[in-house]
Amino acid sequence: MSTSHLFKKATKEFFSNCVNYLILFFSINIMLFLAVTLFDFLASLILQSQEIPYISYTNLNVFLHKPLAIIGLLLLLGILILTIFFQFAYLLLGVRQIYQRHFNLVELLKESWVILRKQTVGSFLFFLFYFMLILPFSHEIFNTQLLNKVVIPVFIMDFIETNVLYAVLLGMAGMIVGYIAIRWLFILPLVILGELPTKIAVQQSLALTKHKFWHFMWRMFVLGFISMALKYVVFIMICILQAGLDQLANPYPLIGAMINLSLVQLINVIGGAWTSVLLLFLLLTNPEIIPFMGYGEKIKPRRVAPRWFNRMNLTILVGTGLMVLLFNVLYLNGMTQQTPKIISHRGVDSLENPNGVQNTIPALKETMKLKPDYVEMDIQETKEGQFVTMHDPDLKNLTGVDGAPQQYTLDELTQLTVKEKGLEAKVASFDEYLSTANLGKQKLLIEIKASKLDSSEMMTNFIEKYKADILKNHHEVQSLDYNVVTFLKSKAPEIPVSYILSYNFVFPNTKSNTYTMESTTLNDTFILKAHATKRRVYAWTINDTETMDKMMFLDVDGIITDELTVLKQEIKEFQNSPNYANRIMNYISVIPDDL
């Protein structure tokens, strides 16, 4: 079947049964929302019961002494894998039911459960590997919110990109896994629809995709691109229409904006479902899969769903609709987001053409002219217990001198010159940096870099020397080391302290005032929980406008960036949009492309 024929066939099938497909995908999203909420709750419960405040690479050794936590989390992982399998069984069996024209949610739940129960321990172990490592590379077809956190954080990718060897190795690994993902595309349909053993399904999938890697890659790209392009053409037309309505007298612009934003949301949902069906039919119309679709078979009489089930569905639908309308009113009137704090990363502006060397006085003076809310900077202890502004644990990268800051005195360090991107400046003491900031009335976000070489009195000295200054000038402190955070909150609770997290696995239970979260896995759930517990969230390190818009849409309290000028302009455009057309365009820029 040609790509154009497949496109027409799948499109006709989708729009002929659009309501049923929308019900299918809507019910999946409801189940996933409940599942994600439950998994978050259970993971938090396990950690709290074992007195583990958070999960990070910095505290993995704690689990060696908490076997019950390991057992609990492993059991949760097992249930997660089963839930993901159930989701895809529900999806594929639902598509088959619609294809056979006897769609019934109650029967679908039962069928999905039966398929799940037929899986063996061997199948479970295979799908553990498949879902965690392979499936994310074929997410265009098989996508699940339950694996949203299976990603490589941006800061790690940035580090890898600066190292040729690591970049090459990662690229090769990505190509290998991507190749396997395409070769294994048919495993889930064969196991779920064909009820084949996993081993046989793997063999048949390899046979079906033999010498056809680029064939499937191309068709996936074409089908996905066409559906997405058509969706955005409609979005552009809606924005143009709204721009015209914005010229009218009140209340017509707002009424038009309510209708148009609702249309954007509806089209996004329909477009996402349509794209999913297009890509699924790439697999389900294969001659080897068609027999399992059961088209033309004698259909069992359709069972009427229980009255309570229909009432529940209607309640969910009406409730969702009302919440969407309320959100639209608030969003269009600029009431859903606050203006985030603008935080300069390491005291500089611009990656390509920086206004100075990171963590130096000349850069600070230039950056203060741009008036950020905070300047984020780094300090480390010196040999004699003083503090120096320095990010890296090894001086070699910026100064050319071997060793750590803790191995040199402050006088020795301030004689060194740091060089970066053709610029240079003297290493600054923290006292000098702090004094310069205070004179310019510039608030600092002071990151304390902890090291095994630090003295036992480091934090005590820091508090005694700088507590009064920090409180007087409204500076804040943050650290990636949880011991630093707990010491500050126990000995100087008045100081605003942020705990830096590189990964959002489970919402942490700490005494910090703020969480500085790496943006890759930061989501609305984390932010809602933080705000519910009266904590702020700073996102780091955001350097592109798309992610800046996303973070503002999520309502973060602060954005840490290397691109200070870009962020200021983006906030101005995003938050102070003078008309509804711009607000709708901002909304379109942050909505996901898939369902």
Account of the 3D structure:
This protein has 595 residues and is α/β, with parallel strands linked by helices. The chain is 57% helix and 9% strand. The chain contains 23 helices and 11 strands. It has helices at 3-16, 18-49, 67-100, 105-117, 121-134, 154-161, 164-183, 187-192, 198-208, 213-245, 252-284, 290-293, 307-332, 361-368, 396-399, 410-414, 430-439, 458-472, 482-491, 524-532, 545-554, 564-575, 580-590; strands at residues 341-344, 374-381, 387-389, 417-420, 423-426, 444-448, 476-479, 497-501, 514-518, 536-540, 558-561. The strands form 2 sheets. The protein has an 8-stranded parallel beta barrel, surrounded by 6 helices. The protein has a two-stranded antiparallel sheet with strand order 4-5. Helix 3 packs across helix 4, helix 3 (67-100) packs across helix 5 (121-134) and helix 21 crosses helix 23. The longest helix has 34 residues, at 67-100. The radius of gyration is 27 Å and the shape is globular.
Task: Summarize the helices and strands and which ones pair or pack.
Blueprint (H helix, E strand, L loop, with lengths): L2 H14 L1 H32 L17 H34 L4 H13 L3 H14 L19 H8 L2 H20 L3 H6 L5 H11 L4 H33 L6 H33 L5 H4 L13 H26 L8 E4 L16 H8 L5 E8 L5 E3 L6 H4 L10 H5 L2 E4 L2 E4 L3 H10 L4 E5 L9 H15 L3 E4 L2 H10 L5 E5 L12 E5 L5 H9 L3 E5 L4 H10 L3 E4 L2 H12 L4 H11 L5
Parallel strand pairs: 1-2, 1-11, 2-6, 6-7, 7-8, 8-9, 9-10, 10-11
Antiparallel strand pairs: 2-3, 4-5
Helix pairs in contact: 1-11, 2-3, 2-11, 3-4, 3-5, 10-11, 10-23, 11-13, 11-23, 14-17, 21-22, 21-23
